[in-house]
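Running this now, will post back.
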Amino acid sequence: MVYRIKGGFIILLFLVISGCSSIDERGIFYQLNEIFATSSKLFQNHSPYGELFYNEQFHKVEDIERLLDGKVTENGLQYMVERIFDDNDEMLVYKEPFQMYIKESNVYQSTINVTNGYYETVRETILNPGLRLISQEELLFEEYGDRLTVTGENINIEFYNLEEYGTADQYTRYGYPANDVLTVCFTFVKDSSGYLLDSFQIGKGDVAS
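Update: finished.
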């Protein structure tokens, strides 16, 4: 009888452990990086619209919806749009911080002014290039019913190492620090085709003293 109880306990423990590892972390991580890469297209191809600037290729909600089709929920789409664009007479134009960077850097012209404002402009957005430097091991994947959260706290992002490379002009001219610390949270919702990004938070992390 004792052996049966022990055997049953071991089987139960195995099922619990198996249930805890049912999330396809590798697949979700790959999907997240696809979203980062695709979203980077939202801040390109700058064109003037009066005194403002817009993305020549993606300047309507429908354009962005097609770009992110199969990757985000309706709420996730709205989340993405509202953090990068403002609606101006049915034309999506960049929000003020992006407008300022474009004007200061003159990036829409052939002659670019040297400015270090780029990284600070995109730092707390889905456009932050540092997001693609986060490893799967630095993230926590948790499932709650039909929702999945992917979080990472105080993740160290290393853009370059001055001791190793000696110079990093290609980074410093755009305002990249050698290192940054980010805290992130991405929420996915499950549907018939898989998980879709529903919301996200990207912020400054705490630098260890």
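Residues 36 and 126 are 7 Å apart (CA to CA). More later if anyone needs it.
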